Structures are given as C-alpha cells and as structure tokens.
Amino acid sequence: MTSFLVLSVHDFRSRRKASVHFIATELAKRGQVRFYSTGLSRLSEHRGDTRTDLAPRANRVEVENGVECYLQRGFWHPFRIMKPGMGPLESAMFRFYRWRMPSILKQWIQQADVVFIESGMAAVYIADVKRLNPKARLVYLASDDLSVVGAAQTIRKEFSRNFDKIDLVRLPSRLLLAGMPHSRNAIFAPQGVDRDLMERPRPSPFKGRLACVSVGSMLFDASFFNLAAPEFPDLDFHIIGAGRAAEALDTRPNIIVHDEMPFEETLGYIQNCAFGVAPYKDANTPRYLFDTSLKLKQFAFFGKPAICPEFAAGGDKSRFGYVPGNRTSILTAIRGALTCTDTITLDIPTWGEVVDRLLAPERFPEHRIVNVTNGQTVAIYRTEILPLSETFVRDQALWLHR
Q1: Is 259 a catalytic residue?
Q2: Which of 57, 205, 236, 288: disulfide with 173, CB 3.0–4.6 Å?
Q3: Which domains does the chain show, CATH number per domain?
C-alpha cells in the first residue's frame, strides 16, 4: 500500500475545506494518508487561527475518515519580521522550529512514499523531507504565490533554494507560474469537485425568502454587505464562516451571520440561493483567484451566478463584477445577478482526475508546463502550444483586471 504524507497549515479535521482537504480525501481511496498540520500556537490562536477549535485535540494522532491526523501546537511559531535588518533573527526562528521537529513528523516523513507540501509555512520542510527520505517523491501544491500572500522572507528563500528538490509542482492556475523559479517540473491541475457529494439534493434553508450566500473568510470585505443590504430589504444576505471579519457587518434584519459550519452543510445554502457572493478585498489581491477560488467554482457548478470584484470576474459571463467600496457598481452587479437567465455550466474535473495528474503526470503530457531551449517558456495545454514571454503572466493579470 502506498503511503502518502500531506504537510499543510490546514488541518484535515477542520470544518472549513480547501483544495488540500479534497486531495487528501481522494488519496485515502488509494493508500495510507497521514495529514500533518503545522504552525498552530498560542500566538496564532490570539491572531484568530481558524484551527483554534481543534487545539484540545493537538499533539496527538487521531484518525478522521481513514486519515491519520496530527496538529502541531506550541507556545509560539516562527513568523514574518518586517523590520529592516531583522532577517537573521527571522531565519534563526525558522531553523530552531525545524530543529525541534516532533518525532512523529520525522517518522511519517521516513515512512512516506509520496509527500505533498502545500504552499505556506509547510514549504520550509522541503529540504528536511529530502534529507530524511531521499527516495520519497515530493509534490508541491501551489495553492498561493508565497510573495503575493506575504509569506516570511525565510520561507520564500527556502522555497527558491530547494525548488529543484521538488519532483512535481501542481499549479491550479497558470497565473501562478510567475511565482515559480522555473516550470520544468510543473503541471496544470485546476480545482476539482466531488460530484457524488455536490449533486445530492438538499432542502432549502431559506424558508421561502430570496437569498444570496457568501462562504468563508478569505479577504472578506464587509463593506459589500453594508452597502448592499439597505438597498435590497427583500433579499437576505447569508454570511457563513467569516470569522472575526464579520464583526464589521452592520446589524440589519437581512444580514444573517452564521458560524463556520461543515462543508456539506454549506452546500444546501449554495444549491438553493439566488446567487453567490465572493466579497474579496482589493488589497493587492492575487489575480489568480480568477482560477483558484473554490467558492466561485462551486457557485458555477450549481448553475448560480456569482458576484465578485471585477478582478475575479474576468470574462466569465456567469460572474458579475463590481468595484469594492463602490455602491453603484455593487447594486448594478446584484441586479444583474438577480435577472440573469443564462444557463451556467462548468467544465471542471473531479478531484479524482486532479489526483490522477499528480500521481501519474506522465499520462498527461498535454497539461505539463515546460521550458524550451531558446529561453522562452511554453505552456502545453490541451492541444495548443502557447508561447509565453517573460511578461506573459503579468500581461494576463492586467487584462483580467481591466
């Protein structure tokens, strides 16, 4: 039986689900899966770590849906230091944290056949994986660009220094290519869906009211709802799992705030809403959200129009864009979504098909991203070969923004 290890700042047992959870669930159908969550501490809990509710279950192995889980928790964790000249201290913190690696992580690395490391703090363990288990195949899950999301300089340096130790890089958006040292080991594997789970009919939780829904806390912009809700008193705005960001919401009868709930429970809201909302802040927000936003994919899967900032709408006819903080554009987007009669469909792989690309990339040459000898980069996608200049990704991001 193949042994898989997943390293992430997410925890497999969390109610909130990201792509790494679905990948791990699919891996569990194919072998033994161990999921190691790093970086929880009293410090991160004070700052609103979404794993705080799991703290009583930290520092021990638990089995959840066939997956062995371990959440590392201590009094502190290394963090980014932004003051000039403090780089050596930041680097020393990360070195000390790695040096104190729990024995369970060492054991799991040594016993793994394939190790998946998700972008973020877990990236500092790339060298450790290859040192402890040189034969293990290493797959990097590029959920985000480290520089875009403000990762510590030490994490970014370690990632670049050890990039060639990675056997395969999963890019859910080709726009993420800009954050990679090169593309020789990259494959395009977009977000997926669990069709069996998603397609189950669910009763409406809205009690006959017209409603829209927002799920999650990532870059949550409360001003969208504060501007929109007074203008649409007959429309309920359901906000699920926004965390502390929800504290900025006005108190109104049609703004309904829900605590974080299990992923499957959120599907009843998405399946029965009039439209979905992805209220991202525009604060140097990464343009690859156009491709990687799971909530936008889920809205489209259920045939629902979505409202999101213009930078995430792109040319997708099912997405109605607005300018954050601009009342007129927000109201126009809502009216557009409410009157949308277009049939919305989505060509999206299952998570099983995504994992197929990660475990057997040689079977999917049409999705590999490779370098050619003249120094240009080319993306091979389906049957087209698209030459990319060194500014291609930036140009595409600017085009999406327009």
Answers
A1: no
A2: 288
A3: 2-166 (3.40.50.11010), 195-338 (3.40.50.2000)
